[in-house]
Amino acid sequence: MFYGNSFSDRKFRGQVRKYPLNYGGLASYNQSLMTTLKFAVLPGDGIGPEVMAAALEVLTRAAETEGLTLEPREADAGGVAIDRHGSALPDETLRVCEKSDAILFGSVGGPKWENLPPKEQPERAALLPLRKHFSLFANVRPGLLYPELIDASPLKAERIRDGIDLVCIRELTGGLYFGQPKGTRELEDGDVEAVDTMVYKKSEIERITEVAIATARSRQKRLCSVDKANVLENSVLWRKTVTDYVAAHAPEIELSHMYVDNAAMQLARDPNQFDVILTENLFGDILSDEMAVICGSLGMLSSASLGLVENRHGHRFGLYEPAGGTAPDIAGKDLANPCAQVLSGAMMLRFSCGLDALADRIEAAVRQAVVSGTRTGDIAFGGKSVGTREMGQAIMENL
Ligand code: NAD
User: Fold this and answer.
1) Residues 339, 395 contacting (CB under 8 angstroms)
2) Which domain CATH number covers 198?
3) CA 116 to centroid of ligand 1, rounded, Å
């Protein structure tokens, strides 16, 4: 088994529905008014528990103002779960997730578990099976840099005077990471060969294109599909499918195509030429990390991984997590920036609860706190900085 994890074969059987094409954004199906949000909290390792604690305080305070009750249910995942239960994704954790409306994830991994076999390492043995189990095929990663923080970006200020604002939609459950055959073998002549398989079905490309269309509709209606159609068969199918699908279902969207090598260059040259980027798993992994770098600190970037399954309120089930990792260099020192975790929580309220106004308020509070000068070290540029807890307090004061 690819993940060495018993969950990867057992898919979550919630109610599945097709993404509607007529909603304004990725917001919600607006099925029912939510008064209680039960969500799984998996803080993980390193800075995970610190930024999660700050985020939960902010979310709880924000929810109270709207009469929404939060019921976070904490469970172990990653290195901490290996230490306590012998597995990065224990049965009990998966059960907590299955009974929840969404998952708020911290981050997992660290030096302590680096020498485990690759299949047992926290990220691979916890996060990837969660994605697979809940069929979280769509990763929505905003690349957002406030104009006030342009010094955090390695790009020249004149290129990003108004900040950066784009979204990457990455296919998350297909392509090279999951395709079979996959493996390493010794050849008869003593050489060694490793194989990964890049495979996509038309239906998989269509469903991620729907998410990208919905995202583009809620923004500037510009979609750039990134592939390598000059070399890869997969990309030829990708490009044709995206072209046909957009023409048939969303002719108002301005669609362009770009080879991935060019996209990597263009992102570094002029990121704001993009509105929404749509791409497959491997290319999205690389481009979204490049996006994180040009947007400054990983401590500011959130993400959502969405699937087809609905939660009990008729909104989409999703996993929400910061873009960064466990930051072992600053873990346990009250130095980590909690904004990415808070913003991931806001995305959860938006996509898994349909609470757009509340999500907007939290996002505005984060921005206001940062703009007014309350900043953790990663975005203070040598100026006065505050700790994780104080940053969380400042966000709450700006709600
Ligand atoms: P990292 O993202 O943890 O850290 C990279 C740099 O960014 C570090 O200097 C760190 O201090 C800084 N940083 C990250 N988040 C920050 C925050 N919230 N506030 C301030 N600074 C922040 O990446 P890494 O060092 O390559 O990986 C460390 C561990 O995290 C590894 O074990 C890796 O496997 C794991 N990881 C987990 C996830 C995940 O759980 N989704 C993602 C990436 C890496």
Assistant:
1) yes
2) 3.40.718.10
3) 18
